[in-house]
Amino acid sequence: MPPKIENRIPDIVIGRLPLYLRALTRLKQEGIEVTSSHELGQRLGISSAQIRKDLSHFGGFGKQGTGYQIDFLVDKLQNVLKLDRHWKIAVIGAGNLGSAISHYRGFSDRGFEISWLFDADPDKVGTQVDRFVVRPLSELKDTLTKNHCQIAMVAVPAQHAQTVANMLVEAGIKAILNYAPINLTVPEGVMVQYIDPVVHMQHMTYYLEDK
Amino acid sequence: MPPKIENRIPDIVIGRLPLYLRALTRLKQEGIEVTSSHELGQRLGISSAQIRKDLSHFGGFGKQGTGYQIDFLVDKLQNVLKLDRHWKIAVIGAGNLGSAISHYRGFSDRGFEISWLFDADPDKVGTQVDRFVVRPLSELKDTLTKNHCQIAMVAVPAQHAQTVANMLVEAGIKAILNYAPINLTVPEGVMVQYIDPVVHMQHMTYYLEDK
């Protein structure tokens, strides 16, 4: 990340936009229509100066003092992040985690739609998980290619994650969210982001005291 | 983060140590005994200079050219991150995600032990999830205080997450891993880290092309 050399906005800035969007959507749900970089900063633990600097990359929202129109800023951020559409997602791995992901209802109103669930296990293939029938990996490439799917979540054991990643690259996937606790090797132009709860907890234990 | 003012090592460095530990453990499992900052960097997509700089905060491991003894470095990192013990973890929320976490077997060999599962729903309390009997939130404070539990995972719906966080702070929790897509407000000295798959995907969609 970022895969595009010509991209001018620092990736670290892009990475903060979803946090701004999440906090703004929350404020909107609370019936608030206008906010400030100060209020946003307090919610996020980010300095208001940083927020103003980040947002300035995308043109002027709200002038100094008058604050941000939340509706407008939400629309703008959704547009910048290409969330003014639904992205279809393939989930690989129908174990406990893959099933939990398949049951989760919080994706659709944030721009994503879980569309397929795949697993290598013949005993799982064909079974129903939430609204999905588990598909075999043999159908992965055709299904994702035909549907121009670009995003996949990997929820398989660590020892299978790289093999699955290779299949996803073969199938034209450009963005992988990897839940397996292993670093994936992918070609240029394919993005990988990682979710590993242990990494977060090990970060925090450094600061904990023995009890 | 970091909660300790006197802590001298930048938090961003501490945050990378679990990634180094994960990659080194992987190399060890592959039977490799010695590695280099170059090899490690390639695995992690981090520059070898950065890795050497980060590790130099903790004294000299492996001299230039001779590389790092993986066993030694793993022990050292586990020691620095206080993983030379098992940290008991409380999971709040026995829904699909909380259940998946309870079933997951990948915590124990990385320094953590899921020890209790709590839920507010009377229909869930008392039921068995993996090796846990779901406990009511009314038992949260006594259980965690008595056992000096310092780490909790929040896997409840967004609208309940802050309330649960307040209860956890009350119960003496110092480190919260929050899966709910909402920013939590906690007092000084309590750490929160976030896991939100949508934030990662929204980060990547910025770079995707319409298909």
Structure keywords:
globular; alpha/beta; 211 residues; 10 strands; Rossmann fold; 2 domains; 40% helix; Arc Repressor Mutant, subunit A; homodimer; 6-stranded parallel β-sheet; two-stranded antiparallel sheet
Short description:
By secondary structure, chain A is α/β, with parallel strands linked by helices.
Overview of this structure, please?
- The structure is a homodimer of 211-residue chains.
- Chain A has 211 residues and is α/β, with parallel strands linked by helices.
- Chain A has 2 domains: 70 residues, Orthogonal Bundle (Arc Repressor Mutant, subunit A), CATH 1.10.10; 113 residues, NAD(P)-binding Rossmann-like Domain (Rossmann fold, 3-Layer(aba) Sandwich), CATH 3.40.50.
- In chain A, 40% of the residues lie in helices and 17% in strands.
- The first copy, chain A, has 8 helices and 10 strands.
- Chain A has a 6-stranded parallel β-sheet with strand order 7-4-3-8-9-10, with helices on both faces. A two-stranded antiparallel ribbon of chain A has the order 1-2.
- In chain A, strand 5 and strand 6 form a beta hairpin.
- In chain A, helix 1 packs antiparallel against helix 4 and helix 2 crosses helix 3.
- Chain A is globular and about 60 Å long.
- The model of chain A has no long low-confidence stretch (mean pLDDT 93).
- The interface between A and B is large, with 64 and 64 residues.
